[in-house]
């Protein structure tokens, strides 16, 4: 936790109460006393809700391809990786900036802040264990190598070459089947590849230049495929590494969707438009009608492909309601919007009263503000690791909707709690320097995607502007 010099300016009589000992160690945030029942209902684990976890928030709840037996057979086929040499993330002081020569992105990843290590991992720190077969790790498909590498502290290591290989697979692997994902407000497709890997496909719904209309509520906004791609790159530059790999792909709607799907409900929504383009609309709560059909040119459509996490039969996930969840109502406000001391109640409620979960929420707040994402209603963790693990940053499609507006309400968790990881603070300072300018790093990272350019220049500039405002929200 960072020393907050000395307190944050606040309206009214409420202020921040912050430790002056910078630390990344688990903390006990709660004060004496206990929150009321209403607050507990809002803040505690909501994984038993009908709409949470497996039912609607997990990508692996799919038709026949998601069958547990089939998933286990696929994984047993590939065996076990032997190399588990990693070390725990330790805090480091901000070292002198490295002179940039050539790639700024490469220079960033060579900075001491991006070179911390993990301790050797035990079986309890590894997400998925496999039966050892007569195969070497190099013979596993990249999606499986990605799954094996997930541990208590990270979705993937900083310099893991498997991630770039997996991104390439998402773009080049032959699509063998397609099905609609159940749940959710907008159409998403589950694509299975020739190597048995799977990914979530979000099709293009609007151009890069279109901004979210000012009168749109956040919950009725489009989910943008380019936002999913940009979110993965931003998450990696921030060194969170909590977004599954995402790549852009140009898909042939006839050969790679209609002709390979066994989903009759999806197949029946295909048609030829008056402009002689192939279109479909699928089934979902919003924007699934002929008026909102997805049309190709004539049958090519852009989309994002997000690699699946391990099957829920092997690695269960727990779904939690975000303490700073919005009301999702046209007139009502959430409790945090009317109570300036709301964070004090959060800090007394498990799992936010100890450990690093509250700091993870602050990381997620920074991540969402830089993207302009207001739609963070739930988050997930891997059940195996209990409360001592990271938050997975899923569903980022409503980011990057407005470059001309900075939604300051996204930063309320920071301004109410006055908490941020020291390592996160140091990286934000680094990314504000001209040598490691966030917009330049993002542009360099995104140019590698097949659908580049992913973001127009105003969105890149907006991230630099928002980065300055993040620091101002918890420091003078």
From TrEMBL:
Residue positions binding Mn(2+): 223, 395
Keyword Protease recorded: no
GO molecular function, one term: metal ion binding
Example GO biological process: enamel mineralization
Organism listed in the record: Anabas testudineus
Keyword presence, Translocase: no
Limits of the FAM20 C-terminal domain: 270-471
Name of the protein in question: FAM20 C-terminal domain-containing protein
Active site (UniProt): 375
């Amino acid at each position: 936790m960072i020393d907050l010099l000395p307190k944050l300016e606040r309206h009214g009589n409420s202020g921040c109460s912050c430790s002056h000992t910078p630390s990344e160690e688990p903390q006990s945030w709660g004060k004496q006393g206990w929150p009321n029942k209403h607050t507990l209902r809002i803040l505690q684990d909501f994984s038993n809700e009908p709409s949470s976890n497996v039912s609607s928030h997990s990508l692996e709840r799919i038709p026949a391809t998601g069958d547990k037996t089939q998933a286990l057979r696929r994984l047993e086929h590939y065996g076990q990786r032997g190399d588990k040499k990693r070390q725990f993330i330790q805090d480091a002081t901000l070292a002198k900036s490295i002179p940039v020569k050539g790639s700024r992105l490469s220079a960033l990843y060579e900075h001491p802040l991006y070179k911390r290590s993990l301790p050797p991992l035990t079986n309890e720190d590894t997400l998925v264990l496999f039966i050892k077969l007569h195969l070497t790790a190099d013979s596993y498909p990249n999606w499986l190598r990605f799954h094996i590498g997930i541990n208590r502290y990270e979705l993937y290591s900083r310099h893991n070459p498997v991630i770039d290989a997996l991104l390439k697979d998402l773009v080049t692997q032959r699509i063998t089947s397609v099905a609609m994902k159940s749940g959710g407000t907008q159409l998403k497709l589950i694509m299975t590849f020739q190597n048995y890997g799977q990914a979530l496909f979000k099709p293009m719904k609007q151009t890069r230049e279109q901004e979210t209309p000012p009168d749109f509520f956040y919950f009725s906004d489009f989910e943008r495929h380019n936002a999913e791609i940009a979110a993965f790159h931003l998450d990696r530059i921030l060194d969170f590494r909590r977004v599954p790999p995402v790549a852009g792909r140009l898909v042939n709607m006839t050969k790679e969707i209609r002709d390979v799907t066994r989903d009759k409900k999806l197949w029946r929504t295909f048609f030829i438009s008056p402009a002689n383009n192939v279109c479909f609309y699928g089934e979902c709560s919003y924007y699934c009608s002929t008026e909102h059909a997805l049309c190709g040119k004539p049958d090519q459509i852009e989309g994002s492909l997000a690699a699946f996490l391990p099957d829920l039969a092997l690695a269960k996930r727990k779904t939690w309601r975000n303490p700073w969840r919005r009301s999702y109502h046209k007139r009502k406000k959430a409790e945090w919007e009317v109570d300036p001391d709301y964070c004090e109640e959060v800090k007394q409620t498990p799992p936010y009263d100890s450990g690093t979960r509250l700091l993870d929420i602050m990381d997620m707040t920074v991540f969402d503000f830089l993207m302009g994402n207001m739609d963070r209603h739930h988050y997930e963790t891997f059940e195996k690791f209990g409360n001592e693990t990271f938050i997975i940053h899923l569903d980022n499609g409503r980011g990057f909707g407005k470059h001309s507006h900075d939604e300051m309400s996204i930063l309320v968790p920071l301004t109410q709690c006055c908490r941020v990881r020291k390592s996160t603070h140091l990286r934000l300072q680094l990314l504000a320097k001209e040598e490691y300018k966030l917009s330049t790093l993002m542009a360099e990272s995104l140019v590698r995607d097949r659908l580049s350019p992913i973001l127009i220049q105003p969105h890149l500039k907006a991230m630099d502007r928002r980065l300055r405002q993040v620091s101002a929200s918890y420091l003078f």
